[in-house]
Amino acid sequence: MTQRGNPRRPYRDVAVAVPVSIPYVRYSQDTAHWWIARALKTLTERAGITPADLDGLSVSSFSLGPDTAVGLTQHLGLTPRWLDAIPMGGASAVVALRRAARAVEAGDASIVACVGADANQVDSFRKLLSSFSRFSQDASYPYGYGGPNGSFALLTDHYMRSYGVTRQDFGRICVAQRDNALTYPQAIMRKPLTLEAYMAARPIADPIHLFDCVMPCAGAEAFLVTTADIAEDLGLEQARLLSTIERHNAFPDDAIQMRGGWAMDVDELYAMAGLRPDDIDVVETYDDYPVIVMMQFEDLGFCKKGEGAEFVRSHDLTNCGSFPHNTSGGQLSAGQAGAAGGYLGLVEGLRQVTGQSLSKPVEGARTALVSGFGMINYDRGLCSGAAILQGAAT
Amino acid sequence: MSVPIERPPRKDPQAATRPAELPPLNRSRSALGMTAWAARGIFALQVCDACGRVAYPPRDACSGCLSTSLRFQPVEGGATVIAETTIRTSTDLYFRERMPWRVGMVRLDSGASIVTHLHGDVAVPGPVRMVAKLDKGGNAVVIALPAEDSDNMADDLQFRELTASPKFRRVLVTDGRSAVGQAVAARLAGAGAVSVFVGIAEPWKPFAGQSELAAMANVETMELDLTDTASVTELAGEIGGKTDIIVNTADHVRPGGLVGQDALATAHQAFEVNVFGLQRLAMAFGPGMRARGGDGTNSAAAFVDILPIHAFANLPEFGFHSASCAARHSLLQCLRAELRPGGVRVMSVFTGPVDDDWRQHVPPPKVAPSQIASAVLTALNEGIEESFVGDVAQDVMARFLADPKVLERELSQ
Amino acid sequence: MTQPPQPTGADLLQGLAAGLASGTVEIVDLTHALSPDFPVMVLPPEFGQCQPFRMEEVSRYDGRGPGWYWNTITMSEHAGTHFDAPAHWISGRNLPQGTVDAVPLDKLVGPAIVLDFSAESAADEDFLLTRDGLEAWEAANGAIEEGAWVLFRTDWSKHLGSARYLNLKEDGAHSPGPAADAMEFLVKERGICGFGTETIGTDAGQGGHLSPPYPAHFILHGHGRYGLQCLTGLDRLPARGAVLFAAPLKIRNGSGSPLRVFAMVPGKPAGL
């Protein structure tokens, strides 16, 4: 199909700044409102502004109910002129950024706080699953109720069968991310992980084993989107937004998920940024399970479809390696704080390219590719997105 | 092949009987359409009237053309399994007690991708047969079976959860005086039930088939008169704690309508057996069965009721009898809801006219007791909630579904 | 020699009360408990059926009635130990006072004659009491008085609880009962008030094959006499000298009724 409508305009002077990660805890009695408030307070303090200066707010949270983003404004005493709620799980941060960038660009808002946060009380994960989606309720959970583990186990099994991938290949991803996490003081998983320990872990839903799974926890992540001018006035370290993509329910006729929406839009991602995969210094993928990481390597152009495992075998994915990836440990080691999990990579990538890294800095990191993936509505993740950020030249 | 299940040992008197957990119960209204078909043993999916696309999961609009004309209809079960997993941990209490649990992804020949229970004998990847059954919560689920039957396949534990197989279970057949009761007792005793208790009302009255019944292996006659509350209560006191399946074969049939028949006393007796008899059984045995729906290999599994198809529409020659069956059908709906929390299935076996003394003048086709016995066994083995035995039952049901009012007129002509 | 004065009614009742109090007059229960498993008359299934006794609990110190216990009972008029009024049979359908509510009270209390044919009944399950048999009995025991209740002792009540009580076979029930000439004799020549049996009916199990069919029912009720069946305890009564009490429920236009039947009999000797 030929391109119709307007060509995409590049982002003009959109600044992304002030990466905030509120340290995660495994279980917490505190609510999403509490976590969001802490993130926004930290965000404004570090930006040197007051909450009243936030004229835009984008919220992603599974556990805000019965409140919405609207209710949150009254709860927190905010008076934004631009308000967004992005219920896209692991794709939330990229999508929030896309929306906020255009709002700032158009002047609909000047300083937008983007925040992803979730509470995690004992049993709240089970409750979240029970009301997650109608298709899951009707056609997925009645089958063993494995939750995301069960769904990704099927994808993983099929992917392994199709491309001759082994557990060791996934293990390399997980072990490298744990190495990275050991340099990130806020990671939930603090113990080193060897490939032997990975292989010996107990099965959860074959072929998924314990270290293929994220640890649900509570926490918050946030960043600011504003104009380059304002960021400069505030004296903030900023990254420029070069390009983004977003896609939902891609390839619906695939019998089982073997690719995400990135594969539909990857050319546009690089074209808009004027870059090639080789130009990326840091990659932050969405890693709820390692199979999805491998699919992202393929679909985002770092290798061909089916060659993800070979790519992993031939690269060092640590912060000091040949392909620095998920540099704070990703969700697999830093933890998955609900919708904040969709923010983790973007916030970490922002830190890496703006010289604010809390984990071991990637040497010479200037350009980061951040991808998101979310919402297992039935048998596959429906939302995908990616963004390229670039820090100032050093 | 599946590993044959073993006869469970006698119960440890110190072990607590754990109440049944149920699989996830919530379903959308669309999904209940699938349940309605699965209740009758049929694998049906929505098919788009506009473009013919087979839709799954159940939905409200076609994902091919946005038409909202989606209708459930039987579909071929041919499919290919393309992925599998064995779930070993779950936050759901029902599945936690039954781990590990095998699940697969199949691609239906007609195009839909389905997350499904996987029978243990299915090889992945490969061809499978998809069937729909009701789970313990009474909702439709699909299970992928091997393309060809395998040895002991009914003993697969995931499959057995979807059935009420009589194997190693203890059965009460409520009326051994009738040919239907005797045929059912013989069939279930021959299908692996460890004991078949057969109720005999008014044992001081001899009956046809008495000596054959007494000679059946694993069959034991017990005094039971469904019109006598004390009798039902007493039997429940004796065997209620170990009755896994009840098959209510009682049916008081007499011709007669309302006008000019003065048959109130007879109608009263029909209701005493057909309606209040069912209620007495439910009152006396229901609590025990509901408490034992999760009690291992020989858990309480099913309450089967055999009743005439004229429960759905009155046959005036058997006017008050039809009325008693309609009441019985309604009570079964109530009982189904009441036993479901205990994981016990309530199965209705609707029959055409039985070939007996009372239906002498009813033209054929009529139903033989052995046909009913086969239908009961099939319902248990396949987990079918509503079965229709014989051509008349199937015909009346089809006409009922088409238009109950037309059926009423047809039956009264 | 002057006759002693006739005792007044008051004297008699006072004497009866004293006798009951002292035990010189005893009461014998001739009634089975009404229970759901008590057999009832078996008729071909196309006929209306005899509804056995049934009892449904209404409350028992529980949520349905916290302080009290009671039941709803249902049954045929002819369930358990019961009374047959003349209107029960077609032969008595037009008689005055033929229903239970209209039976004169003086018919409900009267002298009892007990005919012991238990040995004959044990020897022959189809034993028929004949006029010859009655005459032989009278020769040994004296004549049957007018207005008496005649009780036919067969010890059949001892079979209750087993299939032998109804003793159903493919050709029907088999149990002892009276022949037509015996009933003709008792009703027309002796003028009895009623006839009682231990079996399920006043007629023999095969009484339908006699002429007239069911002669006890036909002849008794056709002449305004009464029937009692399913009696027990006849073995505790003397051949004569007992007084029978048999009062059915006062059911308007009723054909019969379950009831409590008992007899007063001489008890221990006076002064002991």
Structure report:
The complex is a heterotrimer of chains A (394), B (413) and C (272). Chain A is an alpha/beta fold. Chain A contains 14 helices and 11 strands. Chain A has helices at 32-47, 69-76, 92-106, 124-130, 134-139, 147-163, 167-181, 195-200, 228-234, 262-273, 290-299, 308-313, 330-334, 341-353; strands at residues 14-25, 56-60, 82-85, 111-118, 203-205, 208-209, 218-227, 238-248, 282-284, 367-376, 381-391. The radius of gyration of chain A is 19 Å and the shape is globular. The mean pLDDT of chain A is 96. Chain B is an alpha/beta fold and 413 residues long. Chain B has 2 domains: 29-160, no CATH class; 170-411, Rossmann fold (3-Layer(aba) Sandwich), CATH 3.40.50. Chain B has 11 helices and 15 strands. In chain B, the strands form 3 sheets. Chain B has a 7-stranded parallel β-sheet, sandwiched between helices. Chain B is globular. Chain C has 272 residues and is of the alpha/beta class. Chain C has a single domain (25-35, 76-266), classed as 3-Layer(bba) Sandwich (Glucose Oxidase, domain 1). Chain C is 18% helix and 26% strand. Chain C has helices at residues 9-22, 118-123, 131-141, 180-189, 215-222, and strands at residues 25-29, 54-62, 65-74, 82-84, 109-116, 128-129, 149-153, 168-169, 172-173, 177-178, 194-197, 226-229, 240-246, 256-258, 261-266. In chain C, helix 3 (131-141) crosses helix 4. Chain C starts with 8 loop residues before the first helix and ends in a 6-residue tail after the last strand. The mean pLDDT of chain C is 95. The A-B interface holds A 125-126, 129-130, 134-135, 137-147, 149-151, 153-155, 157-158, 161, 202-208, 252, 255-256, 378-379 and B 23-24, 26-28, 30-31, 56-59, 63, 82-92, 94-95, 101-105, 107, 113-117, 124-125, 135, 139, 141.
